[in-house]
Design brief:
Layout: E1 5-9, H1 14-24, E2 31-35, E3 41-45, E4 53-57, H2 65-79, E5 84-89, H3 108-119, E6 123-127, E7 142-145, H4 148-158, E8 163-167, H5 173-183, E9 186-196, E10 199-206, E11 213-221, H6 225-236, E12 241-249, H7 255-261, E13 266-270, E14 282-285, H8 288-299
Parallel strand pairs: 1-4, 4-5, 5-6, 6-7, 8-9, 8-11, 11-12, 12-13, 13-14
Antiparallel strand pairs: 2-3, 9-10
Helix pairs in contact: 1-8, 2-3
């Protein structure tokens, strides 16, 4: 007997989840969130999930209520006798806290993994983790999808034979190098030094970008400080244009102002995080079809390796 599948959404990712469900070929399940006068909230499933494979879609960007809502939804599904609980976290928050980079700090990503495991998940699906090793924080299967799957066709469209891939910092070198090898183009790297989080002190360029159309790739764009400084520096070094591809549009603080005033021609992002405001330089590509197809293949026990371009 075939197992039923139901897809639900947290409040933070409802718009994306509706598109994912449509791509899969169904509608979102009925889930209601009751909010008490003191701010406490309680999700509840308004339809049976007994014996079902339940997919819960929710990005865990701030506020922490988004993460806690996901945990409550997992717990509710488990107590309602769901057969399997698969959390789909397009943007995995707290991923920058993947290690102790100074004394007396938490490893937030591991703590989030522990909480999700304790809540009772059977599998996790996510996209472009800030640090690949976070997959090892879980004792359940992790399907780690890559933004390159949807960015590659967009880059191919603008590839005029004059491209060079670039990393905005040393941490993104592996990702950018993978693109460069696939496209058979050169690679440039920005080396940055920080005095404190979200503030770049110094930046230098490694590689020749003169006369080239630069493609910057990164997993996220937060305050856009690194991205815009890198773009301006590339233009100073003789680049013809700079485009940036960033999976997660965190875009906090002065990000929109910096992008407006920068040399970036275009910033291409996905809808793993809802865009806070429209911007002439920002274009959004949906990941709905990617997640919908992976869910379909997972349900039918088919390989998803074709989605791992890079």
């Amino acid at each position: 007997m075939s197992v039923g599948v139901k897809i639900f959404a947290g409040e933070a990712s409802r718009e994306l989840a509706e598109k994912v469900a449509a791509s899969y070929g169904s509608q979102l399940g009925d889930c209601k969130v009751t909010t008490f006068s003191d701010g406490e909230f309680q999700p509840s499933y308004e339809e049976t999930v007994r014996g079902m494979d339940v997919f819960i879609i929710q990005s865990t960007m701030p506020p922490a209520d988004n993460l806690f809502e996901l945990l409550l939804m997992v717990d509710a599904a488990k107590r309602a006798s769901a057969r399997k609980i698969i959390v789909v976290i397009p943007y995995f928050g707290f991923a920058r806290q993947d290690r102790k980079d100074k004394p007396r700090v938490a490893i937030g990503a591991k703590l989030v993994a522990n909480m999700l495991m304790a809540a009772g998940i059977d599998r996790i699906m996510t996209m472009d983790l800030h640090a690949d090793q976070i997959q090892g924080f879980f004792e359940v299967p992790v399907d780690h999808l890559y933004g390159s799957t949807i960015f590659q066709p967009e880059i191919d469209k603008i590839n005029n034979g004059n491209l060079i891939m670039a990393a905005p910092d040393a941490g993104g070198t592996k990702r950018s190098n993978s693109y460069a090898k696939r496209l058979e183009v050169g690679l440039a790297i920005c080396h940055k030094q920080r005095r404190k989080p979200n503030e770049v002190a110094e930046m230098t360029v490694i590689g020749d970008v003169a006369g080239k159309d630069v493609i910057l790739v990164d997993d996220m764009c937060d305050t856009a400080g690194t991205l815009t400084k890198a773009a301006d520096l590339f233009m100073e070094k003789g680049a013809l244009s700079v485009r940036a591809f960033c999976t997660h549009a965190v875009l906090s603080g002065p990000a929109f102002e910096r992008i407006t005033n920068s040399s970036i021609t275009e910033l291409i992002v996905t809808d793993t995080i809802p865009l806070k405001q429209q911007h002439d330089k920002i274009r959004v590509i949906s990941v709905a079809n990617l997640f919908g197809d992976v869910i379909k293949k997972m349900v039918n026990n088919q390989s998803i390796s074709s989605h791992f371009i890079i």
